[in-house]
Structures are given as structure tokens and as C-alpha cells.
Amino acid sequence: KLCCDWSHHHTHLSLFFLLVRQKETWEGALEYCRSHYNDLASLSTADKMNSALLEITQAEYVWTGLRFLAGDWFWVSGDDLDYTAWYQNEQPQCPDRDLRCGALDMQTKLWTHRNCEEKLSFVCQ
């Protein structure tokens, strides 16, 4: 279900972000954010990352707008990938075909790559 009680399924994260608690694949999350808001979240600066971390609770991993395609990681919003927060400070160079979608790991507070077909909560902007 995509609708129902708005406050039950959505949490305001700040001026930048909105946590959607329903679980979707990465593509499903992208479609949802683009049709209801603007895009999947780009945590492209330390301020944006910190803003998201302050607010996201009750989730182990959440989808972000980070994607690997044609040999590079990028933000689907078009933001520059100058700031990074990869787990162990290592950007996955050539991830397996199904591990090419970026998520925020709420235990480590860092980015990780996950199976794109996995259903996770997600952050829109």
C-alpha cells in the first residue's frame, strides 16, 4: 500500500529529507520519490548526511539516491560525489551486478552497497 495515514508512513527529517517507512526495492523507492516528492536523497554533503542521521530511527538500512552504473557511483539527483562516507572508507570499485545500489547503514552511520532488489525503507528529498 502506498497511501493510507500519511503520518504513519512518513517522517519529516528536516528541510532536506523525508523518511518513507514502507519498504521498496531501490527502483521502487526511486519511482516513489520522483512521483511524490523530488528524488531519492543525495547525502552529498556532511550537513545533509548529519541532518539525515539525526532523524532516521527504527531502520537498519535505508535506500539513498546512490547508484553504480557504467563503472562509477553517482547521485541520481546529479549532485557531485565529492563528499563520501563509505564503510571502512572504501568505495566499492566493481560491485557484483546485484550490489549496485547505495544505502545508509544506520548502525555504522555510513554508506554501503546492497542488493537492488532488497526491500528497504528510503529517504526522499
Description of the molecule:
- The protein is α+β, with helices and mostly antiparallel strands and 125 residues long.
- The protein has one domain: Roll (Mannose-Binding Protein A, Chain A), CATH 3.10.100.
- Helix content is 20%, strand content 30%.
- It contains 3 helices and 7 strands, in the order αββααβββββ.
- Strands 1, 2, 3, 4, 5, 6 and 7 form a 7-stranded mixed sheet that branches.
- Strand 5 and strand 6 form a beta hairpin.
- The longest helix has 11 residues.
- It is globular and about 30 Å long.
What is the gyration radius calculated from CA atoms? 13 Å
> How many H/I helical runs?
3
What is the count of distinct domains?
A: 1
Mean of residue pLDDT values: 86
Order of helices and strands: HEEHHEEEEE
Shape field:
globular
Tell me the fraction of residues in β-strands, as a range. 25-35%
Query: How far is it from the N-terminal to the C-terminal residue, by CA?
Result: 21 Å
CATH fourth-tier homologous superfamily: Mannose-Binding Protein A, subunit A
CATH architecture descriptor text: Roll
Largest β sheet strand count, sense and barrel closure = 7 strands, mixed
User: Which fold does the CATH topology refer to?
Assistant: Mannose-Binding Protein A, Chain A
Number of strands: 7
Structural class: alpha+beta
CATH class: Alpha Beta
Helicity, in percent? 10-25%
Report low-confidence residues grouped into runs of 5 or more. Answer: 1-8
